[in-house]
Structures are given as structure tokens and as C-alpha cells.
Amino acid sequence: MNRRQFLSASLAGAGVASIASLTGCMPKLSIEQRGEFQYQLRLQEAQFELIPGTQTPGLGFNGVYPSPIIRAKQGKPVVIEVINELSEPTTIHWHGIRIDIAMDGVPFLSQKPIMPGETFRYEFIPPDAGTFWYHPHMNSVVQLGKGLVGLLLVEEADSEQFSPDDYAADLPLMLKNWHLNDDGSFKPLTIPRYAARMGTPGNYETVNGVNKPSLSVPANAWIRLRFANVDNTLVYKLRVKNRPAYIVSIDANPLAEPKPLESHSIGAGMRVDIAIKAPSPGEEVIIENGKGRLFFELMRLKAEDWPLKKPTAAEVPMPMPNPLSEPKLDQAEIKHFVFEWEGAVTPADKMGKAKHAFWTINRRAWEGMKPGNIPAPLAKLELGKSYIFDLKNNTPHMHPIHMHGVMFKVIKSNKKKIEPFFTDTVLMEKNERVQIAFVADNPGRWMYHCHVIEHMKTGLMGYIEIA
Ligand code: C2O
Ligand code: CU
Ligand code: CU
């Protein structure tokens, strides 16, 4: 344990030096110095300065926001000790990682809740590289809504074709709109009338905890922007205003070729890596977010003269594909899933709280879990077999549908032409029908839900059993 690194020390207070450390101008430890990837995360009540000059009573990993970044390497073990210093139970889920079910961080389905004062050790070897994230999987409206959301970046295994240093800067960019009053206190995180529609939107827009930040980047070199939508509710429609930009990876999976970015929407839980060749020193790049038909500034990049580690390439540097199994479409079994709105409020429970069930998957609203009371899966899959899931969104709202434990390939939509791509979350437009395919190669009981947190909490959730 002598080479253990504590996040609080090694990542030098994401709260204090946030922008510096996130834009890469702070010296990073090399892989050799980092040794094993061992971390400690304490879940704590904490004060954040989000609106300048105010305090927000949030919940933080190691008491800070933006949360510490967990850096790992493809194929190398990671150990993360989670210490629950909250006054309520929790678990931590590693979104997008193809993991052993025992480490998936879902209460009752994969582990016992981590009670206040308890510690749980998560250990896994990430098979895939890319932009991932981590968050609790209990009381999610509150725990995620108040700040327990962080990035998990898995660096590519060494290869001749690609080195992470092919990008002169690698910027993690966490998008979240907070539900705040002007004095920094929280507004309600959920309002039933909105939960039954698109979800309750936050109002204070942040990138890494800052409203409309301006970040320095090295001039005249390729940089990688790792956008992660860690919001409970919103879709971000990203566009780069005044510079060519390319989509490199979706969720954690590199595309076959870089795709010129016009605009790209990411729903709650989704990520996109974008490559830009930064302009000359002093010039700026404006990144915008679309709302309706209009676009507004989200953040900007300011190019500066930095010494480069490596001469920058002519073409967009492309990471290698992740080692995913290709689904056999001609032999795949088709399963159907229909997402619908139902609008039911069940009678108040013992605590006097009404339980809302607004959404259903195949006519079933998720009933929740308790020890010894785990509902039946939505589907049982045979280990090793290929499947096509036919997903129908029969609602006038968007739903980012996420599955744990596997990556799936989006192969078809009735609304747009699809260049098939692997992902862990697919954003379904209203009334869209999408087909996804995958090999059921990871045994376990895997959550399968909408990542709009209020939707999953009011019915749009279930699980798939692979055995
Ligand atoms: Cu980020 Cu169950 O998911
Ligand atoms: Cu997940
Ligand atoms: Cu939804």
C-alpha cells in the first residue's frame, strides 16, 4: 500500500486549481510515477462556490466540485476505495465500463448498499479506453443532482498507431446545469409535472463547475475535448462556431474515421470526444450549445504559445477501436421494447409520499428493489448469443437509453440514416424507433434505463439478465 495515491493529494484539489489542472497545464504524473491506479473517494457534504460569491450546500467526492478525475489505463487494474461519509446509503457505478457484475455498483442487484460510515473497495480492469464517468446509483435525483458526478478517463493501451500524446492537450469537460437560486441555495431538484415530461431542468449552466469558462489550449496543435453530460436531465447540442471540428469517439468508442462536426446532441449520461486543431496564439474558439433553433456560447478556448511534447500531426489523431465483439446480425434474436408514458400516481406510502409512475417499458413501470425483493428481469439473454433490441419510443420526449455491462451497436433508426457505431447510451428522439445489436458476452443482471434521472425514478428502468 505504500505506493497508494490519494486522490485528494495526487490530483491536487480539483476545487482549488480546477481550471489549471483540467486544462493540462499542471504537471501530471507519468504512468511510471503513478504506479498502480489506486484511489480513495470520500462522499461528503461540501460547500461549492458555483455562482461567484455564493455557497452551495452540495455533496462532493472528496468534498470538491468538479470531482476528482479518476485516470486509469486500458488493461491495467484500478482500485477505488469508496468511503461513505454521507448520512444515507450509496453505491458507485462506473458508467460505460464493461465490468464484473460484483463491481457494477447497483444496490441489491450487484452489491449491498454502502451504509453511512462504511467503505467499499471497487476493483476492476477496464477493457476499453475512452471517456467514462462515475456516479451513485441510489437516491440519484439528490446524490447526482447535488454534485456526486465525476469523470473516469481510461487512457489507451500503448500502440504504434496512437499515443495519448498525439493530442497536445486533453480537456475533460463536465456539463451540468445546477438547480440554483441566486444566493446559491438549491431550488427543487424535481417537480412532478416536469418529471412526467422532459425532466426538471437546472438553470445555472456550468462546464467543470464554471459558467461560460475560457480555457487555455496550446496553439496550432491537435487538442481533444472530452465532453461528458453529467446532468440529471438536459440534452446538450454541441457546435463549434468558428473552427473545423471532428467527432473522434462517441461514449468511449472511436469512430472508424473522424466525422466533421456540424452539431451533435448528447443526452444525460452521454459523452463525445471532439478533436480541434487549435488556432494561432491569441485566437479564440467558441463552443456553443443549441437550445431550440438558437445557439448560445457554452465556453471558449484561447490558444496560447505552449511548448509541444511532440510535433502535431497533419491528420486528426485517431485512437484504436475498443476490443468489442461484433454482433452476428443474421443469427441474432430480436427482442422488442416499447417506452411509454402512463401518468399514474399511486396512493401515498407509509411516509406520506406519493409514488409516481409516469413511464413504462413494455407496459411495466419499475417498481424498485429491496433486499429479498428483486423484480423479474425485462429479458433473459443467453450468454454468448447475439441480440437485436428493437426500441420504440412512443412518447413525445427524448430518452437517453443506457445499458450497463455491455457496449451495443446502433444499427438503424426510422428517423435518420445511421452509420453504425458502438455506444453505451443511445439518445432516442420523440417517436423514434431504433435498433441496437450486441453480443451478450458479460454475465450478470444489468440495469437498463433512461438516464434522465427523474424518468428512471418514475418508471423508465428495468434490467436484463445475461446467463
Ligand atoms: Cu450512468 Cu445506471 O447509469
Ligand atoms: Cu451505467
Ligand atoms: Cu427518459
Strand content: 35-45%
| Overall morphology | globular
Mean pLDDT: 91
Named once each, the bound ligands are: CU-O-CU linkage, copper (II) ion
Strand order of the biggest β-sheet: 10-9-12-17-14-15
Tally of distinct domains = 3
Distance between the termini: 36 Å
Name of the CATH first level of the largest domain: Mainly Beta
Going by CATH, the homologous superfamily of the largest domain would be Cupredoxins -  blue copper proteins
Count all strands and give the number. 30
Characterize the biggest β-sheet.
6 strands, mixed
User: Helix tally?
Assistant: 6
Q: What does the radius of gyration come to?
A: 21 Å
The class by helix and strand makeup works out as mainly beta
Helix content: under 10%
Describe the structure in your own words.
With 467 residues, the chain is mainly beta. The protein has helices at 7-10, 18-22, 31-34, 140-145, 192-195, 453-457; strands at residues 37-48, 56-61, 70-73, 78-84, 92-95, 119-124, 130-136, 150-155, 169-178, 204-207, 214-218, 222-229, 236-240, 245-250, 253-260, 264-266, 271-277, 284-291, 294-304, 333-346, 355-361, 379-381, 386-393, 399-403, 408-413, 421-423, 425-428, 433-439, 444-450, 461-466. It has 3 domains: 9-158, Cupredoxins -  blue copper proteins (Immunoglobulin-like, Sandwich), CATH 2.60.40; 165-304, Immunoglobulin-like (Sandwich); 329-466, Cupredoxins -  blue copper proteins (Immunoglobulin-like, Sandwich), CATH 2.60.40.420. The strands form 6 sheets. A 6-stranded mixed beta sheet has the order 10-9-12-17-14-15, with no helix packed on it. The protein is built from 6 helices and 30 strands. Bound molecules: CU-O-CU linkage and copper (II) ion (2 copies). Residues 93, 95, 135, 137, 269, 402, 404, 447, 449, 451 line the site of CU-O-CU linkage.
